[in-house]
Structure formats: C-alpha cells, structure tokens
Design a protein that fits this description.
Chain A: It comes from Actinomadura parmotrematis. Chain A: This is HEAT repeat domain-containing protein. The complex is a heterodimer of chains A (531) and B (420). By secondary structure, chain A is mainly α. Chain A has 27 helices and three strands. Chain A has a three-stranded mixed β-sheet. In chain A, helix 22 runs parallel beside helix 24. Chain A is elongated and about 130 Å long. The two termini of chain A are 66 Å apart. Chain B has 420 residues and is an alpha+beta fold. Chain B is built from eleven helices and 17 strands. In chain B, strands 6, 7, 8, 9, 10 and 11 form a six-stranded antiparallel β-sheet that branches. A five-stranded mixed β-sheet of chain B has the order 4-3-2-1-5, covered by helices on one side. In chain B, strands 12-13-14-16-15 form a five-stranded mixed β-barrel. The chains are: A mainly alpha (531), B alpha+beta (420).
Chain lengths: 531, 420
C-alpha cells in the first residue's frame, strides 16, 4: 500500500478512529492529528499532481482517411454552407450540394459532421450528400453507425460479379442496372439463371432494370413474365413491352386500339372532313388482363374534373397508352400534329351495358380519353413528335398534369417555350400549381417570364384563396426559377408594397420579397462556388 | 459577428435583416456604426452600435439583446455596406451620453478603489478573511477527524454552508472552490480526489498564515483566497511581455450570475497566458481575441508565483490567422510539473500538442504523439475534430487539467482550424 493510499484510508475512516500514517520528511506538526494528516496529504498530493502520468491506453490511432481527389469549396461557399446547415434557407441545402458536386468540389471536413447529421433525418438529401461529401465523408461515416447510410450509397455497388450472388437486394439491383447499361444480354442471362428462385417483389425490382437498354432481345423474356405469379412482375413486364417498338405485344394492342378508334369522312355543318370515331371496348377479357390492363385500371375511380372516369373509358385510355403511336400515323396517313387536331365523335353505343351515357355527353369526353391515352403513350415511348403535337394542339385541359409530364420528352431547347405556353394556358386555374410542380428546374427564358406573369396575377388578386396559391407558387419558384427574372420580381414586390392599404396586398408583397431574397441567396450561392 | 447573438434564433433573424434594401442612412465613423431599418411597423427602427466595447442600441421593442436589427447592422458593416460619415444627431447624442456615463463609472470606480486602499478598510478586511480562513481550517480538520466516508451521503448543504461562511468572510475565490467540491463524491475514485482537494485547501490555509513567503507566492495565495488586483495596478506595475501571442482556445463557463470566458494564449517563445473576461448571463462577452489567430501584443501579467492571468496591454498590428507551436506529451507533462512546483494549486494549463494523431477506444478520444505517448481528450462532440484530422497528424490545443485535455481547437495543414 502506497503512502498516498494509506493516507486516503486513514482520512476515510477519520483520524478519530485511525492514527495518522507516518511520512518520512513530513512537515513539522501543527495542530491536531487531523491537521497533521492534511499537511502530509498536501505534500503527497502536490507530488502526485506534478508527477501524474496519463493512464495507459491500447487505443490505436485512427486509420488515415484516403486522400481527397476533389478540392474543397472556396471559403465564402463554405461559410454559406455553414449558414445553411445552421438553418438559414435550409431548403437550399440539396441544391448547394448538387452545385458543388457538379463543379467537382467537396464539402470542407469541419462541416461534415453537421452535414451527415442532416442526412440521418432526410433520406431525400442522401444522394446529394454522397455526391459532395468527398472521400473523407465516407471515411467519417465508417466510424459512426448513425451515418452508415453514406457507406455504399453511391451508384456503384462495388465488388464484381459476385455481388449478384451475394449482395443485398439494393446492391443486386444496382449491379443489374449497371450491367444493363453495358451488356443487356448478359444482365438478362444473369437474371434468367436465378429467376425461378427469386421472391416475387425481388423479381419485379430486377425486371424493372430492363428499362435500361431495352431491346427486341428482351421480348421473349418479357412475354414469359406476363404469365408470372407475381402481380407486380406482370405489370412491370407489360409496361416494358408497351415501350418496345415492333413487339408482338404492340401488335396485339394495336389491333384492340384500332377496334376502338377509326377514321371516318363526315360532313358536319357543311364541312367535309376526317373524324375520329371512338368506341370504348364493351367487355374486358383475359387477354386484355394478361397484357396489363386490369378490370379496374388504377385511377379509374379517382375523381377527375368530372367524377369517376368509368371502367370502359379507363380501358380505352390504357389500351391507347400501350399501343405503338406509329399505329395511328400509319392508319390515318397523317402526321401527329394533324391527328391530334382531328375532331372526335362518340360511336353510337350499341352495347348498352350500363356504362351508357357516353354519347349523351357531347362535351368532348371522348376527345379527352383519346388524348390522355396518346399522352401516356408518348411519355412511355418518349416520342418527341407526338409530345410536341399534343402540347400544341392537345385538348386535355382537364388533365394538364399529363401534358406537364410530356415536357420531359421534348428536347431541352423546346421545353421552356412549350412549358410557357402550358403555363399561360392553365393560368388562373386551380391546376396551375399542380402543373408547375411537374415542370422540372431550371425555369428559364420564356417559362421564367410566364411564371413571373402568373405571380403578378396571383399577387394582384390577393385574397384569402389567392394568397394560398401565391405562397405555393413562390415555394416552387424559389427553388426552380432562374434568377434572370429578379429585376422584374423586385419591381413587382415594390409595386405591391406601395399599393394602398389592403391587407392582402401587403401579404403578397411579403411573399414576393421572400421569393426575391431566396433567389438572390441562390444566385450568390452559385457564384461563390465558381473556383 | 454572429457570436454576439444571444441565441440561434436571433442570429438567423439577424442574417435575415442584413439586406441593404431594408436599410437607410447606413453609416459608420467615430467608432460607431448606425442605420435605420424598415421593420413591420410604420416608422423605421434606429439601430446603432458602439464598436469599442461593444455596446448596442435600437429603438425596436425586442427584449433580445442585441436585437436582430443591431446584428443585421453589424453584419452589413462587416460586409462593408456602411459608408464612412458623420454620425447623425441621434447617434452622436447616444455616444455622448455613453461617454459621460463611462466617465461617471470611472469616477465611481476610483472612489471604490480609493476606499479599498484606505488602510483602515483594508485592515478590517484582512481580519475578516483571516477569521474566515481559520474557520475553514477547523471545518477541514472536522471532516478528516470524523472521516471522509460520510461525504458520500452528505447533502450539498455540507459544502454550501462552509462556502457561505467564506462569502461572508469576503474570501470569494475560496468559497467557490469549496462549493465546487460538492460534486466530487459522485466521481469514480472520489476518496482520493476529495482528500487531495482538502489537503490543497489546508495548504492554502497554512500558506495564508505563514510568514516569510516570497512576494509572488504570497500574491498567488491571496488571489486563490479572493483578494483581487485591480486592472489599473496590473497595467501599471504588472510584468510586461511583448511577443507574438497565439490564441489557442476559448471556453465559456456560465455560473449563477456571471459568465466567465477563459481565453488561452501561447507565445512563440513558449510562454502561456490566460485572459479572463466576464459578463452577466445573456450579455455579450469580449470577442477581441479570436481562436486561431495570432496577435503581436504586449501583455501585462497579474502577479503570482507562476504568472498566468494577464491583460492585453497593447496591441501592435491586426490579428492574423496562425497555427501555434506545439510540443509532445512528455514536454507538456514536464511543463505542467514545473508549473505545479511553482503554484501547487494550479488546476488548468494551456496545452498545445503538435503532430498528434487521434485514437479511439471505448472510453473516448486520445491524442497520441509521435513518440507514442497518449493523453485522454475530452470534447463535447468528437466528430468535428475527427473529421478535420482525418487520421492525419494535427495540432490540438486545450486546457490540461493534469489528468485529461479538454480540446478547444485543432489545426490540420490542409483543412485549417476547427474551433470546438
């Protein structure tokens, strides 16, 4: 027992019960036993403190992080990221990260813990984080299980062909997707080798990767999958077949479609022209179900503009959506632009199966069904000519979302103009926000001008309802609108701020100012990222 | 700038207000910056800041201090948005008022100081303190006579009562040390720790009564008991050291009625210094010393056996970013032992370890130097230090307690400084 330990145990029991241990070289006694114990302890304590050595540890230094390939962002950008992470304009985080990654830059190491913490709560951010966190981000995530999501989150599943045998479902999907990109046949063979033993949800997920590099070689496999036990597998197979040009599936659908839709020369109000006569299928059969059109297609009961669609119309839409669009250009001998302008008439309903009434409504319901079917087909088959034609002459005012989806099919140069047209068309309707939601960023050129006009109009009619619309519009615009329209928005905000004392106007001005602030923040943010 | 914000929400609001479009009449000059901010109300809020102290004023009704308008104003000023000019009447009036108030406070302080210097008052206080210290000596002896074992279940009152009596006896520093002991019996290995603390207090008691101590050691003892040295005396007669001083760490401690900021400095010739500043809770603290920078300055040290506490007497030139010089673990231990030999009550020492790599085990982080010697690190959040170090050798600075290092800052050659 060391001198110190003896003193501690004596002090614990008390000098009333335990004698003061002897200490050679102790200071001269002063006072009672307790005082002597404290004096001796003081000598030992100072010695101990001066001579204290840190405890031994078996901890090994942390393995060095791999060297970074990308440089860190400039200091101003790092400072802004710190502000975003602290909560200022927090919704810009994803854009900041993507913009940094696009310029080949990474987040500086000291901000990584806060950034990785954000990804814990927000799954949507994770791909952006993975893109900008650099190698040190992954290195850090390996040391904290809370951030494990970053490890192996990239597109590259890692490993070689054995991933297909041993990986998790997500890794296997990633592997298959990558393989489809380089060698679709090999991917198909790999899938075929394990196909009967896979679980149904896995089969559907694996089959979906055929969307990459889809070709006629896949037809046989997909046709077989139409007989699969899994409902999702069958649906996926039929969706893929519908996108495959020149397939037997397409021919079957085209035969059904032509039975529903035919051209006819008619004279109406002394004008002789080609009419399209539409007659929705009267009955559903097993063949149709096998080809991916269920008895109740999804959405057939969804309340559209005017109540449920009805099963017959829903079958028609699905059939048209799955029919190769070339069917119509061949059948009518006209280009898509002219076909979408043809008037549509309802055929006299001879079936009378209870779903009657279609012909009683001369309100263009048939036109809508046909155009929606075509729009879905154009989207699925990524047919530029049809998308362009439908956006220009389409009649789907009730379902502008379908048109908005078509914008993605257009070549980038045409999108702004077409979207601007669409925005002007639906301006003032409740659909506006839903349409804009589907128009991807960036909103530039004519589209930006059109959106500014819409904002102006919404601010002008500032009232309870329109304020809500304006807020929603601003919310979308602040993330997608090009900063080029800033001057115009500034003028707008100033004009509404000066407007006479209407409560709605003041609120509108506030929303617009918030929008310009955010756009300015975004502009500066992007500027700072340029090295 | 945002370090001045009373809370995160204010900092956020401040950045929101920091937009030139919202301001009119922005200007700076005469050591102040001012502007009028359009708020939600009819008339604009007039915000001004005296950059010297810093002090703030705003006509808005916010109870936050400084309010978002002042923060926004300072941010704009730091961005260079305020043009130099003559202060308008309302700013000039405020500045004059402040100057006058400062003059009155100075005069009041001088009166108090004079009273403290009055031999009669001083003698009375010496007597009071001596009685308080003697009382503490009896209390310490009681604890050891009855046995420390009872401390494990003792209520907080045991220490608090002793501390109150010391406060009454005007030995404030001593009171604080005694009160802090209440938490010792909850720590592992507490009997040894508690005996060590009691023994050091007894040493202080005896040193206070002892004759023939050297003058510096006498000052150390008096400072530990609660006698303060006024700043003017330190500036007038304290030891002066001019050097390039690196600011290696800063730590705020909120006590009941006072927030203390400890800023640690290390000179290029290896000298250590501690600059203390105080503020009421929620009020801004001194921000003149920024961690990660180096200043060319003359420091005035408070007297003591191992002078550590100091005032920045004079600055020569602006602060520049710099990495402090560091040592290995062995050198740190030697340095601390030498410091404890001079001042046995020394409880914290600024440590700068260079070329250390971080290691982790179940208990926490360690800093391992090139020779393989390791010290345990204490950090609130280890991840930022780990992220910046990335497994490379880094410089880590912090407070060394003799047992572990509370990391306050780290430097990486490429990633730069991280303040913890």
């Amino acid at each position: 027992m060391s001198d110190w330990d003896e003193h501690v145990s004596a002090a614990l029991l008390g000098t009333e019960r335990r004698a003061v241990p002897p200490l050679p070289g102790a200071p001269p006694p002063d006072g009672d036993a307790a005082g002597r114990l404290l004096d001796q302890a003081a000598v030992l304590a100072v010695r101990r403190r001066a001579g204290l050595r840190p405890p031994a540890t078996a901890a090994e230094p942390v393995a060095p992080a791999p060297p970074e390939e990308a440089p860190a962002v400039p200091p101003a950008a790092a400072a802004r990221l710190a502000r975003i992470l602290a909560g200022e304009q927090a919704r810009m985080l994803g854009e900041w990260l993507d913009a940094a990654a696009a310029r080949g830059l990474r987040v500086p190491a000291r901000l990584l813990p806060d950034l990785l913490e954000k990804g814990r709560a927000d799954r949507g951010l994770r791909p952006s984080i993975a893109g900008a966190a650099g190698r040190r981000g992954v290195w850090l995530a390996l040391q904290n299980t809370d951030w494990a999501y970053l490890v192996g989150s990239g597109d590259d599943p890692g490993g070689g062909a054995e991933v297909w045998e041993t990986g998790t479902r997500n890794q296997r999907v990633a592997h298959l997707s990558a393989l489809r990109g380089t060698d679709p046949g090999a991917a198909r063979a790999a899938l075929a080798s394990t196909w009967p033993t896979e679980a149904a949800p896995d089969r559907a997920a694996f089959l979906a990767t055929f969307a990459h590099g889809l070709s006629a070689g896949d037809e046989e496999f997909l046709e077989a999958a139409l007989e699969d036990r899994g409902k999702d597998v069958r649906q996926t197979a039929s969706d893929l077949l519908a996108r495959l040009p020149g397939s037997a599936y397409g021919a079957r659908m085209a035969a059904r479609a032509r039975a529903c839709l035919r051209a006819e020369r008619r004279t109406v109000r002394r004008r002789r022209q080609t009419w399209l006569v539409v007659e929705p299928p009267h009955a559903h059969d097993d063949g149709l179900a096998r080809d991916g059109v269920p008895f109740h297609p999804s959405g057939s009961f969804a309340p559209g503009g005017r109540g449920p669609v009805g099963t017959r119309a829903a079958w028609l839409r699905e059939i048209l959506a799955r029919t190769p669009l070339a069917t119509w250009t061949e059948a009518f001998g006209l280009p898509p632009v002219e076909i979408v302008c043809l008037p549509v008439a309802e055929a006299a309903d001879t079936g009378g199966t209870g779903d009657a009434g279609a012909q009683d409504e001369p309100d263009g319901r048939g036109t809508r069904d046909v155009h929606i079917g075509w729009a879905r087909a154009a989207l699925r088959q990524r047919d530029v000519a049809w998308a362009r034609a439908l956006l220009k002459g389409g009649a789907m005012v009730d379902e502008p979302e379908a048109l908005a989806d078509l914008l993605a099919v257009l070549p980038p140069g045409e999108r702004d103009e077409a979207a601007a047209g669409l925005v002007r068309w639906v301006a003032g309707q409740p659909d506006l926000v839903r349409v804009l939601e589907r128009v991807p960023a960036p909103w530039d050129g004519a589209l930006a001008e059109a959106v500014a006009g819409v904002l102006d109009a919404a601010a002008e009619r500032a009232g309870q309802r329109h304020e809500y619309v304006l807020t929603q519009l601003a919310r979308l615009a602040e993330q997608r609108l090009s900063p080029a329209v800033l001057p115009r928005l500034d003028a707008l905000a100033a004009r509404h701020a000066r407007a006479p004392d209407e409560p709605g106007r003041a609120a509108a001005a506030l929303v617009l100012t918030g929008l310009t602030d955010t756009l300015r923040f975004r502009t500066e943010m992007i500027k700072e990222l340029v090295p | 700038m945002l370090g001045l914000a009373p809370d995160a929400a204010s900092a956020k609001a401040g950045t929101g207000v920091a937009k030139p479009a919202k301001w009119s009449g922005l200007g700076c000059g005469a050591g102040a910056v001012w502007g009028e901010c359009q708020g939600s109300g009819k008339s604009a809020y007039r915000a001004a800041a005296d950059l010297g102290e810093p002090a703030f004023r705003c006509s808005c009704p916010s109870r936050k201090f400084p309010c978002k308008h002042v923060l926004g104003l300072l941010l704009l000023w730091s961005d260079g948005a305020a043009a130099a000019g003559e202060p308008p009447a309302w700013v000039a009036g405020w500045l004059a008022e402040r100057a006058e108030r400062a003059g009155r406070a100075q005069a009041r302080k001088a009166v108090t100081a004079a009273r403290a210097r009055d031999p009669k008052t001083a003698a009375a206080r010496e007597e009071q303190v001596a009685a308080g210290v003697a009382d503490l000596d009896r209390w310490l002896a009681d604890q050891v006579a009855h046995g420390l074992a009872q401390a494990e279940k003792a209520p907080y009152r045991l220490w608090d009562d002793a501390a109150r009596r010391l406060v009454d006896a005007k030995a404030g520093a001593l009171a604080g040390q005694v009160r802090a002991l209440a938490s010792v019996p909850r720590r592992p290995g507490w009997p040894g720790l508690l005996l060590e603390e009691y023994a050091l207090l007894r040493l202080l008691v005896r040193a206070h009564a002892a004759e023939g101590l050297s003058a510096p050691l006498r000052e150390t003892v008096r400072a530990r008991i609660g006698f303060t040295v006024v700043q003017e005396d330190v500036l007038a007669s304290g030891e002066r050291v001019r050097d390039r001083w690196c600011v290696v760490g800063s730590r705020d401690l909120a006590q009941e009625q006072l927030t203390t900021r400890r800023v640690w400095l290390r000179s290029r010739s290896g000298r250590s210094a501690l600059v203390l500043s105080f503020a009421a809770p929620g009020r801004p603290l001194d921000v003149s010393l920024a961690v990660g920078t180096e200043i060319d300055a003359e420091l005035a040290f408070y007297p003591g056996a191992r002078p550590l506490r100091a005032l920045v007497a004079e600055r020569h030139g602006p602060a520049v970013a710099a990495v402090p010089d560091g040592t290995g673990v062995a050198a740190l231990l030697d340095e601390f032992a030498a410091a404890v030999a001079a001042d046995p009550w020394l409880d914290r020492w600024p440590a700068v370890l260079a070329g250390v790599r971080l290691a982790r085990d179940g208990a926490g982080l360690w800093a391992v130097d090139a020779a393989g010697a390791a010290v345990p690190l204490r950090t609130g959040d280890p991840w930022r230090l780990l992220a910046v170090a990335g497994g490379d050798a880094v410089t880590v600075a912090g407070e060394w307690s003799g047992r572990r290092l509370r990391a306050l800052a780290g430097w990486h050659p490429e990633e730069g400084v991280v303040i913890l």
